[in-house]
Design brief:
alpha+beta; FAD/NAD(P)-binding domain; D-Amino Acid Oxidase, Chain A, domain 2; 2 domains; nine-stranded mixed beta sheet; eight-stranded mixed beta sheet
Length: 418
């Protein structure tokens, strides 16, 4: 077989692309990853100092990949979740112990995920880095070993250009994916009119493994337990306010305003870290597959960060695709690898398999933002009664928990508990 022919070429070596490459190890497929940003480069957004709340489905996924012990060493468990509505009495609490779970999730620095995934990806796949995909085209009958058609992928690196051929191109290079755009896949966008400030800080009181989601008239505030007295903040504000707070406000002004919005449950905040600002736009590809191509991660769907669903949804996409392509679910079993991993039958099975999870997760996150951003008094009364009912009615609380932890619907085997 040619050195430039692969069964699967993955555009993007961030958290999603590298996870797929590692998951496919043992499938018998030859995999390549094309990543434009070198290892250790601060421009790589996937492996920076932001924190991600990994749902139990994602924890199980990394367990099956053999990476969880390394990740767990720097992860902090979420033992409780507290949801409240600023200025109103309604609230609800979720507890891992009451629900019979070891944890509701684990808060993990992205750089730790990258440190675990990068070397595993380099063992599982041929890595072209730094390199970028210029374009790709379908060529009929170009290679007798690859079936009736292949996708030719033109790649540029420091040495010039070369052409790879693949039976399946996986697009996982982010929300503003040029590879997806080159496939002429249209996007639907919803601008929430907010940007998220993401920063680490210290709290006077120990968080006790509690994650907080507090809804305010200006946008939701999430505080995640990230260390003994460290919390990771995701604070949604109108675009200009977020920029002004992150880039122009003094630390004292920032912390005072945060304290006023969040309250004193964790005591006084201090030691503000470096602030990053990201506009909050929900982006959805109008199709998740094309001819010999699959769209994954933020290239397929970017969500509002409320309830921390984005990466967890993407990893379930990765798991489902990997299983269809013959990835072993555990060390003692192996799925049957399809004859043609980019064949129409595989793509036809993948798209509807993932649409339900996406629609359910988008509806959950978008519904929360819509419900809690409206100050119409009858709606305020209803939502606060709803929060109180959740706190008092275990079946309703468990329904919410299934959606929050990714356990609703048909969960891929790589993400399911035994």
């Amino acid at each position: 077989m040619s050195d430039t022919h692969f069964d699967v070429v993955i555009a993007g070596g961030g958290l999603v692309g590298s996870s797929l490459a590692v998951a496919l190890q043992g499938s018998g497929l030859r995999v390549a990853v094309v990543e434009p940003i070198p290892e250790g480069d601060p421009r790589q957004p996937s492996f920076d100092d932001r924190h991600t709340a990994l749902a139990p489905t994602s924890r199980r996924f990394f367990e099956r990949l053999g990476l969880w012990p390394e990740i767990l060493a720097s992860a902090y468990p979420i033992e409780h979740i507290h949801v409240s509505d600023q200025g109103h009495g309604g609230f609800t609490r979720l507890s891992a112990k009451e629900e019979g779970l070891p944890a509701l999730g684990h808060v993990t620095p992205n750089r730790v995920l990258g440190a675990a995934l990068r070397p595993a990806m380099e063992k599982a796949a041929d890595l072209f880095c730094p390199a970028e995909i210029l374009d790709s085209v379908i060529v009929e009958g170009a290679d007798a070993t690859a079936g009736p058609s292949v996708r030719q992928v033109r790649v540029k690196n420091a040495s010039g250009e070369q052409t790879l051929t693949t039976r399946l191109l996986v697009v996982a290079d982010g929300m503003r994916s040029s590879t997806r755009d080159a496939l002429n896949i249209a996007m639907d966008e919803k601008d929430y009119g907010q940007s998220a400030i993401i920063v680490n800080l210290r709290s006077e009181r120990h968080h006790g493994g509690m994650a907080y989601e507090r809804f305010t008239p200006e946008g939701p505030i999430a505080l995640l337990p990230a260390g003994e007295n460290t919390v990771s903040l995701v604070w949604a504000l109108p675009h200009e306010q977020a920029k002004a707070m992150a880039h122009n406000a003094s630390e004292a002004v920032f912390l005072d305003r945060l304290q006023a919005a969040f309250g004193w449950r964790l005591g006084k905040f201090s030691d503000l870290g470096h602030c990053s600002v990201y506009p909050l736009i929900a982006v959805t590809a109008q199709q998740f597959t094309s001819d010999r191509a699959v769209i994954l991660g933020n290239a397929a769907h970017a969500l509002h960060p409320v309830a921390g669903q984005g990466l967890n949804l993407a990893l379930r996409d990765v798991a489902a695709l990997a299983e269809l392509l013959g990835a072993p679910v555990d060390s003692e079993s192996r799925q049957q690898t399809p004859t043609d991993p980019g064949g129409a039958d595989v793509l036809a099975e993948y798209a509807p398999l993932r649409q339900g999870d996406y629609r359910r997760t988008f509806g959950f996150t978008n519904g929360l933002v819509t419900l809690f951003s409206n100050d119409w008094l009858p709606l305020v009364a209803v939502r606060n009664m709803g929060l109180t009912a959740l706190d008092l009615f275990p079946p309703a609380r468990r329904f919410l928990l299934k959606h929050a932890t990714g356990a609703a619907g048909n969960v891929p085997a790589l993400c399911r508990e035994d």
